[in-house]
Structures are given as structure tokens and as C-alpha cells.
Amino acid sequence: MRQEKKQVTDISDRPVIRNLADVDPVRAQQVAALRAHALSDPEAFWLEQAQRIDWATFPTAASAASFDGDVSIRWYEDGTLNASVSCLDRHLETRGDQPALIWQADDAAVSRTLTFRELHAEVCRLANALRGLGVKRGDRVAIHLPMVVEGVAAMLACARIGAIHVVLFGGFSPEGIGERLIDSGAVAVITCDFSRRGAKRIPHKTTVDAALAHAGTIGAVKNVIVVQVTGDAVPMTEGRDHDYTTLVSPQETECAPEIMRAEDVLFLLYTSGSTGKPKAMVHATGGYMVWAACTTDWTLSPQPGKIHWCTADIAWITGHTYVVYGPLLSGTTTLIYEGLLGWPQPGRWWDIVDRYQVSCLYTAPTAIRALMRDGDDVPREYSLASLERLACAGEPISPDAWEWFYTVIGQQRCPVADMWWQTETGGGMLCVIPGAQPMKPGWATTPLPGLSAVLTNEKGEIIEGATEGALCFTQSWPGQARTIWGDHKRFRETYFTFSPGKYFAGDGARRDENGYYMITGRMDDVINVSGHRIGTAEIEDALATCHSVSEAAAVGINHDLKGQGIVVFVVARSAKVAPPVDELSRVICERVGRYAAPERIYLVKDMPKTRSGKIVRRLLRKIASGETENLGDLSALADPAVIPALIAAVGEQTITG
Ligand code: ATP
Ligand code: MG
């Protein structure tokens, strides 16, 4: 099924830039040509991009997408392929013995490296085992594993046999997992005994057992495969539960890939749940793979033989696209780390960077803020000289955190790609193409080639020039989610009714005179003070300039005179030094405007965060308004225990002053 590689404009071998404003003229010109081609002949452009992956039958047409009426998104419809072939088989001949996957265990002394050949064999064995259990094309398979080799193998094994993977975060409660098993109709679960989180052990198998009891007779799960991660004993149900090694090791190391249509579903993935109940986005095989290949190449320039480390959990879209599919497609080595940030000591990440000579480090602003809290001396004890590329995604990054990442970690040598995207978008959307354009700290910069970003006013009408509004896209792109699993109506209503004929991302953005975009926060979170519309990120960015502040979150509460008033929650950088509240207020007034002066500032120990590390402002808003009776869906929270602590802190500080 290997396809002769045709000519796709290659922009990956250009020199790395040294300075924020540095641009390599050749690369800039190549990218300009790419953008122009996408505009002048989108059909030809997208077919050219499709050559980045291997097809069994190359498609004859690119887009058949419409945002009107019932909304129908289809790409490369007559193409056929298998996603695992582009990640594994294509490399066997040229780099079969090169590392594909490195696993660093929580225990620094334990690690495992699989070459492309070994990963291919593991994937084939598991795929054969799944087939042997009766898992068929189109069946859903839930994966509930920590960051271990088997998690990556399980995703690719599902792809191999045309089963749809549904990766569920390891820390979900039995109810959270049970609901998702019912919603997705999973027929099998791949889990483990326990996982490690620092000193803690998280039960996976007994959680799945409880989830299956919760799902009861509605659930369709017939088989549970259990990986031994910690080796602790767990109850096994005869006939349903299988030990991974016993089941998988005797299998054949070849497995004929199921040839899928481009529009067949590759995976379902639930969003993070920052704004409400998580939604299961449906991603189709052909388009997703093409978009993963394009975005990885344009923004991260992965190279075979180099080490790529994206710290995201595979349960999030970043883990799908930039831990598994994107890097493996490009033949680079992807590194996964089982453990926690800063465990057992600060500097653990930098030790990994030096030890494996990591070239590209991709992480989230929440991690960057936590790393900053450790102080600059920690990373300065390490070389970090192997780093060439940095990237982050997940939340707005303040210019200060951006500068820190660029200066202290990247040593002003590595470009930082601040990539704005969503579970819904499949891959990066707004991002700098390093070397082709100047970077701008705190700005996700420009839409990637082929994308049609616009800003609209509150009525959904397009607004031009340097301005601020709702971020929408007028045209489909290959990696776009096709629907919400089992709920196309919610899909249409959530994304396509705000401004008919456009995809509404739900985020607000500012655009400068050069067409650069900065995300100002969620549209739901925009604060309207006496007619001034203020994005949460604007206030939070201002506070990030205060050295005593580690994290800040702004929310709007009802105000009799102003309509809304601003309340700010602040986590101190050091437990010993409380940020001076008057000073914080002054900084906001200076940087944003007097109208943004907060009504109240609360010092708190922790923010409510999703399991993917994002601040959940809707909960802060309720707590600040005293509406603590009905906090809504809390299943997405990483640590529900922060809620009573927040309510207590707000109660105390409101009384004392
Ligand atoms: P839910 O949709 O369930 O509320 P979520 O939106 O947090 O959860 P994800 O799909 O994981 O789920 O996150 C996408 C969102 O993350 C974007 O809509 C945006 O708000 C935020 N985001 C991602 N990357 C960036 C970035 N580089 N800059 C600013 N915001 C970002
Ligand atoms: Mg979202």
C-alpha cells in the first residue's frame, strides 16, 4: 500500500531562528507560497497535503464540506487508508531500527525504547488479540491507561483493525468512566492494575470494574484487557478479563491492516470539560491524519532521529496529535513520561531533557507556570542544549510566562510555538511557523495555511482590521471533527448557529494590524463592566507581570451599577510571600484600564482545574457570587477537594476585608 512520495513543499529543513523577529527569507518565501496556493486553489492545495500520508487509494477530491443547513463535513471521500500504516509500516524499510517510542518510567532507573519495528510488532500482536476477541471494524474500544507503551500501542492497534479508540483519562471516577462507556458503546476496555502518581497509586482495574457495574446492563463491554503496570494483584472476572501479556505475547507480529474509507471514524475523544459537560468529538481517519501531518511539520519541524517530547496525557487531543500520530507519521522519536511534573524533585523534567537529548518540548501553560514557581535556579542546573523547539497549548499563555519559557528554558535559541486549537479542530490552528514569521509573546499569531479565520461581533457579523471579537472559521479543514458522537444536533447548535455558515470556536480573540491573533479567553467568560468588554486573559496577563503571582483567574459577577464587576482569584508564587492586594489592583488599572479595577481579589491556594490542567472559571464565578448550592457538572475536575477550600477562603476573606 506504500505510495510513491510525491512532492509536497518541504519547509522543514530550514535553519532554526535565533531571535523573536528572526525570519529566514527562504522559509518565509516558501510559506508565503504555501499560503497563496491554499487561497488560490484550495482543492489542489489540500490534495497536495494529502500526499504527506500513505493511502491505499489516493483520493481524487479533497473537500465536500458544508457548514450550512444540517452541516456535513467530509474530506478525501474516495480515499482509502489505514492510519497505523502511515505511523509504522512506512518507516520499516528506511528506519525500522530507529527508536519510535521511548518510555521513561516514574522510577528514573527504568525506561524502555521500542524501535519502529518493535512498535509495529507490538501493535500487530495487540491488533490480532483484539480481533481474536471478536472486536470488529467500527467497534469502540476504551483505553484507560497511564502514560505507558501499551497506551500508544493500543491506539494504533485499534486503528490497525478499524476499531474506534476512545481514550479515557486515568483519573476519572467510576461514574465518569461508566457514563463514557455507555455514551460511546465501547465493547472492550484496555486498562491496567494501578498507575503511579508520585507517591500515590491510582486504581484502574477496580475503577473499571465499578464503572462496568455502574454501566450495568446498558453497557456493551464484553472484554477487559489488563496491563500490569505496578504488578499489584487485582480481581479478574473469568471469561471477561484478560491479562495483557498472556493474551498478547503469543500473537503473530504481522497483522493485515483493515483498509478504511477516509471518512470512517478513527477515534472519539471527549473535550476537557472546562465550560460544561464534556462532548465526544468524532474524528475521521483521512482528514485527521493529513491535518496531524501538516500541523506537526509546519510548526514543530520534527526530524527522524531527533527526540520529540510532548508532555500531554494521551487522553487529551494534544496527546493524540502531538504524542502519537503527528510525531510517528514524521518518523521522529516520541518520548512519553509516566510520572509527574517535579516528582520526586523539581528539575525532573530537565533531567529527562538532558538524558534523552530532547529536541522539541511541547507542554501546557499550566505546567510552565508551575515550573516558573520552582525558580530559575532549577533549570539552570541543567544543560538543555539539545532543545531546538518549544511549543505550548491548552490555555492562553501570558507574555511573561512565554518570555520565561523562551529565555530560561529555550535559552533564547528555540522558537516557542504558542498553538491555539481544540479537541474539535484535530490539530493546531493558530500558530507561528517558526522562521517564516516573527514570534510575538502571548500571541498565538496567525492561522496556519489553508485556514480561514475571521472575527465577528456579538451578532456573528464579520468585523475587519485590528479589532477584537469572536473567533470563527468560514471554511472547513481536513482535521475538523465531523460531529459529536450520537448528537449531531448539539454539534450543529454549539458550533454553527452563532454565525450561520461559520465554525464558531467559542473563544474570543484580538487581532493586530499584522493579522496576528491573541486569545482573550472563552466567549462565555467575557466580562462586561459598564459597557467595556474585557477578556479574562487581559486581566490575567496583567497580573502575570507581578512577580509574587503564580496564577490568576478573573471572573465577572453581577453588579448593580456596572452590570458586571470583576473578581480575581490569585495563587501566590511562594507560600511565604502573599501578593499585596493593592499592588495587584494598581497593576490591573495601569495595564488594562481603570474600568477593570477588581471589586475583590482573593488569595487562594489552588485553582479548580480540569484534568487537562485548565482553570474552570465557571466554578470560580459561582463561588464568587455565593451560588455554591448548584455547581453543576464536576466530573471534569482534577481535584474536587479544592472546591470546599475555595469556598472557605472566599468566605473568610470576604468577611475580613
Ligand atoms: P470543553 O470544550 O469541554 O469546555 P475545553 O474547551 O477546555 O473543554 P479542549 O478542547 O481540550 O477542551 O480545549 C480547547 C480550548 O483550550 C480552546 O477552545 C481554548 O479556549 C483553549 N486553548 C487551547 N490552546 C490555546 C492557546 N494556545 N491559547 C489560548 N487558549 C487555548
Ligand atoms: Mg471547548
Return the average pLDDT rounded to an integer. 94
Give the overall shape, derived from the CA principal axes.
globular
Strand order of the largest sheet: 10-9-6-4-5-12-13-22
What's the CATH C level of the largest domain? Alpha Beta
Q: Provide the CATH architecture of the largest domain.
A: 3-Layer(aba) Sandwich
* Percent strand: 15-25%
Number of strands: 29
Number of helices: 19
| Largest β sheet strand count, sense and barrel closure | 8 strands, mixed
In CATH terms, the superfamily of the largest domain is ANL, N-terminal domain
Q: What is the domain total for the residues?
A: 2
Task: Could you tell me the CATH topology label of the largest domain.
Answer: Rossmann fold
EC number: 6.2.1.1
GO molecular function, one term: acetate-CoA ligase activity
Family: Belongs to the ATP-dependent AMP-binding enzyme family.
Keywords: Acetylation, ATP-binding, Ligase, Nucleotide-binding
Fold and architecture overview:
- Belongs to the ATP-dependent AMP-binding enzyme family.
- The structure is a single chain.
- This protein has 2 domains: 446 residues, 3-Layer(aba) Sandwich (Rossmann fold), CATH 3.40.50.12780; 125 residues, ANL, C-terminal domain (GMP Synthetase, Chain A, domain 3).
- Helices cover 32% and strands 21% of the residues.
- It has 19 helices and 29 strands.
- α9 packs across α10.
- The N terminus is likely disordered.
- Magnesium ion (MG) binds next to loops.
Offer a quick outline of the entry.
The protein is an alpha/beta fold and 657 residues long. The protein has 19 helices and 29 strands. The N terminus is likely disordered.
